[in-house]
Amino acid sequence: MGEEKREKPRDFIRAIIDQDLKTNKYGGRVHTRFPPEPNGYLHIGHAKSICLNFGIAQEYGGLCNLRFDDTNPTKEDIEYVEAIKEDVRWLGYDWEDRLYYASDYFERLYDYAVELIKKGKAYVCDLSPEEIREYRGTLTEPGKESPYRNRSVEENLDLFKRMRAGEFPEGSRTLRAKIDMASPNLNMRDPVIYRIMHKEHHRTGNKWCIYPMYDFTHCLSDSIEGITHSLCTLEFEDHRPLYDWFLDQLEVYHPQQIEFARLNLSHTVMSKRMLARLVQEGHVTGWDDPRMPTIAGIRRRGYTPEAIRDFCDRIGVAKRDSLVDIALLEHCIREDLNKRAPRVMGVIRPLKVVIENYPEGQEEELDAINNPEDPSMGTRKIPFSRTLYIEQDDFMEDPPKKFYRLAPGREVRLRYAYFLKCVDVVKDPDTGKIVELRCTYDPATRGGNAPDGRKVKATLHWVSAPHALEVEVRLYEHLFTKPDPTDVEEGKTFRDYINPRSLQVLKPCFVEPSLARAEPGARYQFERVGYFCVDTVDSRPGAPVFNRIVPLRDTWAKIKKKVSQKK
Ligand code: ATP
Ligand code: MG
Is the full-model pTM beyond 0.90? Predict the structure, then answer.
């Protein structure tokens, strides 16, 4: 995995599907599903699962369902349902008319539970949750059988019916599968399949006060929908025997569960629970904060669905957990936007330049190329005048050896314009801070070349001060300083590794006047500064706010070890 592959990956999951097609195991069908629990926003880890499930369906001419795994009314919400649908669509996938909810199957699941009872394979248990835990045993010790394990079928049927009717308080009884309390697999020690919860559900309202557990619900939902390959993350490997057990006992259609390693991305966290804490505690502005690894955050930051799909193809799927360097994700967006994003000039830390020999009141328009990678994107006019802004970083009064940009007495090129020479430095008398450069230009160098063939070592971006649009720019760094913030030292939590520099707001910044019409969500390359996206939340007409998606320098290209093994 982690190889820079351009064509679709061939991995162990696709190998299994190829084999199943060869043996005609599912009559030539390929049918997958993406089953999020609507208890938070989707993150880039879910994108891996979405690209895998929907991608495989596309490749094999099969189908992929979107199914909400909504069996826990206390944590789930309609807000999340809508956000998840939007995110899957934005990634470029279509579930057509196959949008399902596990809660739609509650009646059928209840019937299946009754059937298990009738087969002597499930019983109502009166142990409390704590007692169930105690009776369960450990990895080294077998569990103890519940004293209620051998209730008669009739009694179980009666009690289960009354559980449904709301006769018993929450937590007082459960329905459990009757499997094997001595099984080396803890999941097989009579797992709970129904619990009493007097809670309103966001779809079924107060119709139910018993709710099925994930393991029971998931395999049967897959079965009901005719799923062929049920792809899930590795933590469910130990649950597979249970997945198979329910389907075998009930003698229903049997999909195959296949596990793959979840995506872990460096310098961020990937669990909804942790992401929710960041939101609730105000470390970020919301689920769509551009620093968040959520699809909503990444989208607002300016990432494209193409870049994310490319990223998911490149990381591939494997059987072992690893930590993928976030630099790979950044590499993918650079590659995509390099081809597509129009170039503009924008100065994010402005330093005023006055060109002493450029006549006052004069201005002109110069031709600039919109994208050197794509000539079909054409050219535009940019205004030039006596007063400009350049980047503070592009000037040093006392430059060290390898600094080739502007310095006193030195000449550089202004992109698409003229050669410029610094003749004087103006400082604030109180602070000594440089506030302005006095320069001259060479009118013979229009377009950026000297007729006498003399060379300069640097080309700077700039904007004309009287024409420029004043904007706010937001720069981002990784949300966490530590590659794996879940690997915490004693006495700390993952929040202790939040990067205090993860957001830096710069204003005033100055950009080309054409950007007054930039649409929210539009993406640009600010020459030499990075790729930017017009913020969709805080921009106002004529006053765009720019999020930097990534700087231009590609750290991925320098990284030798692409995927470091986690732990
Ligand atoms: P989280 O731990 O972040 O809450 P989850 O697994 O509880 O995630 P679900 O809504 O249950 O979230 O997941 C929906 C699907 O996405 C599941 O099939 C799950 O295996 C998959 N998935 C979740 N996280 C990742 C990840 N980091 N990498 C790949 N797939 C993931
Ligand atoms: Mg979950």
Answer: yes
Do 502 and 547 contact (CB within 8 A), yes or no? no
In whole angstroms, what is the distance from residue 521 CA to residue 539 CA?
10
Alpha carbon 56 to chain centroid, angstroms: 20
| 275 CA: nearest ligand 1 atom | 3
Q: Are 32 and 64 in contact (CB under 8 A)?
A: yes
Nearest to 178 by CA among 219, 216, 212, 150: 150
Catalytic residues: 37, 262, 272
For residue 203, pLDDT beyond 60: yes
Cα–Cα distance between 54 and 41 in angstroms, integer? 19
Given a cut of 90, is residue 276 above it in pLDDT?
yes
Q: Which residue has the tokens 């799927």?
A: 317
- Neighbour count for residue 180 (Cβ, 10 Å): 15
Strand 459-460 and strand 434-442: the pairing is unpaired
Burial class (CB within 10 angstroms; exposed 0-12, middle 13-18, buried 19+) of 400: exposed
> What is the pLDDT, as a whole number, of residue 433?
96
The pLDDT assigned to 564 comes to 45
Q: Which own/partner contact pairs does 270-278 have at CB distance under 8 Å and 24+ positions apart?
A: 270/43, 270/44, 270/45, 272/39, 272/40, 272/41, 272/43, 273/40, 274/486, 274/494, 275/40, 275/41, 275/43, 276/40, 277/495, 278/495
- Ranges of beta strands (E only) in 69-215 are 99-101, 122-125, 174-177, 192-196, 210-212
Quote the tokens at residue 55. Answer: 């991608």
**Which residues are bridge partners to 123 per DSSP?**
176
Q: What is the mean pLDDT of the chain?
A: 95
| CA 483–ligand 2 middle distance (angstroms) | 23
Q: CA nearest 230: which of 13, 1, 70, 11?
A: 13
Whether the pLDDT of residue 567 is over 60: the answer is no
- The best mutation among 49, 230, 257, 278 to test binding of ligand 1, ranked by most ligand atoms within 8 Å of the C-beta, falls on 49
Q: Which atom of ligand 1 lies nearest, measured to the CA of 231?
A: 18
> 245: closest CA among 163, 363, 122?
122
CB 192 within 8 A of CB 213: yes
Domains defined along the chain, listed by start: 27-260 (3.40.50.620), 272-342+472-566 (2.40.240.10), 346-461 (2.40.240.10)
Whose Cα sits closest to atom 2 in ligand 1? 271
- Phi then psi for 148, rounded to 5 degrees? -95, 5
- What b-and-e string marks burial along 264-300, b requiring 16 or more CB atoms within 10 Å of the CB? bbbbbbbebebbeebbeeeebeebbbbbbbbbbbbbb
Q: Name which residue sits closest to atom 10 of ligand 1, judged by CA.
A: 36
Helices (H), 38-135: 44-59, 78-90, 106-118, 129-135
CA of 519 to the centre of ligand 2 (A): 36
Residue 38 Cα: closest atom of ligand 1 = 10
Cα pseudo-dihedral 418, 422, 428, 432, rounded to 10: 130
Q: How far is ligand 2, taken at its centre, from the CA of residue 73, in Å?
A: 13
Could you read off the pLDDT of 125-146 as tens digits, one per residue? Answer: 999 999 999 999 999 999 999 9
Q: Which residues pair with 519 in a beta bridge?
A: none
